[in-house]
Fold each of these.
Amino acid sequence: MTRVVLVARQPPRSESLARIVSKLREAGAEVMLISMADVERTHADVGAQELRSLRRHVDTDPAFYRACRAMTDAGELWEYVQRDATAISWSATATILAAVDTSAVYSVWELGRLNPDALLRHGAVPALEAFLEGGWVEPTSRAQAGSRRQGARARGRRLVRGLASSSVAIAWPLRLLWRPILTSRRLDAGRRVRLCTDVVARMFQAGRLPAALTLRSEVASSLARPADRADLLGGIAGRLIESGTQPPDLRDAVDAELRLTDSLYARGEGEHAASSMLQATRLAFHQGVHLSGTTSPLADDPSGFTEPFRSSAAVAEVARPRGRRSPAAAPPSNRPPRVLIATHGNPHFVLQLENHLAATRGAEVRTIDLSGLGPASMLVRAPWRLLSSLLVKDGVAEKIAEQHLRELLDWADIVFIDWCTALVRVFNLVDPGTTRVVVRLHSFEAFTPWPHLIDPSRIDDLVFVSEHVKDVVVAQVPALLGPAGPRMPVIPNAVSLRPFVRPKEDDARFTIGLIGYQVVAKDPRWAIEVLRRLRSRDERYRLRLIGRHFDGSFSRAAEAYAADFERELGELESEGAVERYGHTTDLPTAVEGIGVVLCSSVREGSPVAILEATASGAVPVVRDWPFFRRTEHGPRTMYPPEWVVDTPEEAAARILEVSQDAARWRAASAAVSETVLTQWDLAATEGLYDQLLFG
Amino acid sequence: MMRGGWLARSDEGVDDDRAVVPDRSDHGCGIPVSSPHLLLLAVGFPPAAKSSTFRLREIANQFAVLGWRVTAVNAAGAMWKQDSGIDLSLLDGVHPGVDRIELPLERPELDTDIRTFSRDRALDPAAWRLQHYRKSWEAFPERTFGHWRPQLIKAAQEIHRRDPVDLVIASCTPYVLLSVADHMHRRHGVPYGVDFRDGWSIDVVKGEVAFDGGSRRGRIERRVLGDASALWVVNEPIAEHYRRRYPEMADRVHVVRNGFDRDSQPPPSGPSTVPLRFGYLGTINFSAARMSTVLDAWRLARTWEPLLRDAVFEVRGHVSAGASRETTEIAQMLAEAQVDGVVFDGPVPKSEVAATYGRWDALVLILVGGSYVTSGKVYEYAASGLPVVAAHEVAHDATRVLDGYPLGVGEPTLDPQELARRFCRAAHLAVEADMEMRTAARVFAAPLERPQQMEAAVRSLAASATSGTAAQ
């Protein structure tokens, strides 16, 4: 079969590409798609015979990751492609190689040298046209042999390292033999790092934790250069994260990397320091560590875990308060206030604010996303350019920001930036003049590096959606409390609750609602445990799962969680105890039939679904979110204390207590509905934004 | 007599581009050699399948009918294959007295064969393109076509040497053609007319001046228009812009509207039956936001109107060009809207335009810009005799063209709710409009046929050129 290989850094979404893939296949082509994006997850329905997500298969050790930071998108893609034997093998046997996006042109150009017979095209439609025109030739055996040789070499290298690491991991006497080799200063440090990374990672995975930690420490202390130490500790941590294991002492790896960052910065190598800083942030704030599990070292100890960031000279330079020449001015009284809303993420919360400001204050509101920043958006999308410019101190980032943000800042009386991401740091590059800058931090940003990297002196108000998120952020970045820091009000997410108030049947009290259970952070297995306990007492209890189904494709940890969840769900579904309601845009109807709403999450910021369901009369049972157990605030200070429980046992007891008797449940239902309508309805909360923005 | 050379005369298809222009002859159609000779600079002439193709063909044909010998200069087929495509059936409508010259003009930025790329281009296509545009701009201030200037002038000189030219018409875009007309006038004293269609110094989409008079482009435009025998533009607002900008040539500015071509008009049809088919035909040059507005309205209308429940909305035309063809955000939106009865199936060959309109029950007119834009498709839509839903600014020149159209469904709008109501009204009109109403719609459109729109301007320019020639 004639093979067409499509290469894309970021392919168009599945639906539009599917139309072209379908035509290729109808014409008899075998279609493969290779990408930096996770196409194995996002493009499973595109119709290609094979999909290859390069980031899943290419080992991104610290040195490689750092090196890629400074590359163009095109250069980085080629680095990944040439490290992936499968991608090379497909390409060597392709008749047509096509770059679907501009960043893939260089990879296809290089692959064309490996496969000199293939037609090379820029664009999926031109590839289709070339295929339909015919006249191409099948690849010669020379190209295929080349690819086989390249693949065999890669496999050979992996085999040697694999054998070595397996033997050491499994048999301790062999470990004794390897130890002097791995710690010998006479041998090449780079090789020792690579080998030790394999060995120690395998030992961790084999459950030999103390021995692994000892060997890692011994080898690390034998390495003189900060880069080698960072490569070793970061390499092991990265390998464990990728395999779905929480790396012990992740903080040490972050610390080693930031020491490298600082040494590079001290030597005047700002660009390399920026690459290293990004590797440190990748390790410290990896989604697989904090957002794909039910525990997080940062949540356990926000101050201690992030201490290396506060000790880093390079981080301090990035976050150095640049100050402003003039203080923010009060909104004008002779014309409607002008508010610029800038967002980098989910625009859902912005729409409400935008409508409110325009409707009640007559404000002129302009809303922009990254596309409204022009070339300055590149600094947000590619943080290396931003950080390297700040560390090299060449003024380039400031110049770009000044050129493209000045007009926006001059127009606005208030700039409101939703989500505390790189966008905030880019706005911070410019002295805002008398324009007031307000930033809203929701929840996930507390587990990202950006609170460490923003310039607090150019933010007037840093708004949090809850006290406990503020606790976590301030513990990490106490400088926010300093004299140059912003005011830090807490305003919960505004939500219109009245449409949820609808009558309920008595039987609804036996249906427990769980709204949103797509990710590990929602910990739906905890809800399953509550259901089990309820049903052991009364089989009338059922669980209604509302929202998109659990997605285990984000990480290995999520994949493992998904497998357990599905198994447990299957058992209860066979008893008719679980209803998968699915995704809906009509939540008021979806919650009409539930009498109790459960929040099983390990972390939340200011969740609205629980309030909406409670407004409908569902009695809330909220887990004391484990991520915030150590903070001063949390659900126990946010909600009436009787709503909050610690364990599945407590949750089941609370549900039984309020729902066994219909009259009692009705009374509780009416009371909780009244409580949320009084405290959290839009009417009660939007005044807080008026107060914040217009005094 | 056929000879090899870089200047190509094309008698057949697009690949026959290596013959030279003949010496003065009767063009094989009985037009005497003593008749005047028009050099029509017409990039987009048949068989190119471009939006301007019919207009260019009509100019050539009308001059030929007046007894002129016409030489139409176009880019060769290889370039059109990369651009808007070619359609050999378009050649059928070309008057036999028209000679076609196809030059090997290139647009390397549209090339999608990566084997031809240098390493630098492969590494950073955007930087390479910028560099290419810079070089192009040096030759003439038009980034995509400026580098054609030497080739075009050389070709015009050669044509003139072999068969002296009495009149040049530069139909822009591309604007680099102005440099050829200017050259022929200064070097050889040949009079010329400029068919600007949309105009250079006015950005018709944004509705603002594109460049000021002191700029390089401004100086060229002033000089070239200053010596032109006539300036044609497609609507009154653009004409007014030029009259204001160059008061001294106000009497030479003429509105030469586009129109519909008989080839594109479907046969008369009676009331439709469900499931209804709505259609959009044309280059998809509007924003993703506008597409989104139309699709939202379509979805809403389908929930409101039983006649639309199983209706289909067929979108046909080019989406983007070059490498990103059919993989843009709009292509994605269209693919996602399949569940709502939206079908996207690429461009329609010019020869199938009438049949395509003939399959549809109502049309959706989606346009960019405002009062300076008319578009060519509004005339085709009017000639279709079908209900038309207009999704564009109210202050748009297309509004004037459709004013009083018997099968219109209300003012243009970009409000999704209002637009949805227009879809519902169009559905009712599609099934309820009787033959009388449909005939009235076609009668309304009859004066909009292209030949009638152009005739006076062609006669006037031809007359001024021949009187000038006689005087010389």
Amino acid sequence: MEIYHTNVQLNDIVKLRKGINLMNINKLLPLTETTFYIMISFLTPSHGYAVMQKVEELSKGRVRIAAGTMYGAIENLRKQKLIQEVSSEDKRRRVYILTQLGKEVLALESERLKQLVSIADEFV
Amino acid sequence: MKKFRVIVDMTQEEQYLKEMAEQGWGLVNYTVSNVYTFETITPKVKQYKIDYRMFKKRNDYLDYLVLFEDSGWKHISGKKNGGFHFFLPKENQNQDLDIFSSVSSSNARYKRLYSHATAFGILMLIYLIILNPTFELPTWYLDPSLWKYEGIQLFGMIVVQTFFLMLKMLPPVFFLGGTFYYAFIVSKVKTIMKKNQMN
């Protein structure tokens, strides 16, 4: 009886952990358009200003990120462990790259967007 | 010209600095003790932008400054741990733009100010409690040994007593004032945050 009881608790903890992970990723999705562009840009190691330029180029000038917003976005992505710092020769500018978790989130978001587009193609 | 001003509403402060520049007063710097220094300039339109941020590491601060520099903003005033940072657009760049391109990142500076002011306020309150001041002002003068003196000697003793009393009261008064100061900032920031959320 005791052992059975312990097993139930362990299972609950595992379920709980999975729940937390799922909740965390769901909290991140859907990404804002700006965050999506920023994460795409961080697929290659870049500093903040390079990302600002890259996003403007990718969005054909439609999405322009201001400096203060860019700095805050990097701070948030770092906290969420979606990007990580890489060493660079430029001591004045910090360089980051998308993490494995970042790539997974980007893939999930991409799936979500594809689904939206297929529905739009069908009905609109 | 020096001017004491406590900054809470940064949008309002940007407007104030713009009006000062139109009247011929250019911002030189703003200190941690809330004092502006202005210099005389030829009156013109200057679109000041204010951010609020503190930095743990020297390199984080450098990275921040270089990002703004690269993006066409001139850092006018601000320190690594000073909180407020003042920017002006460089010639022919960012003229009608802001340093924020989203509402949430613009509001985030108030969240940072809020959490810092809360932390400092609590710190001040803890120091105040540790000092545990007893406001026993009159009893100092009621000490019988003091009143044995007469005339100029009595006057001298009262001056000495007052000096020591002030020395003793200075730290608790400072921390009490600090607690109220940060409580004031916290309540004002909260009002601004509520207002911004409604818009």
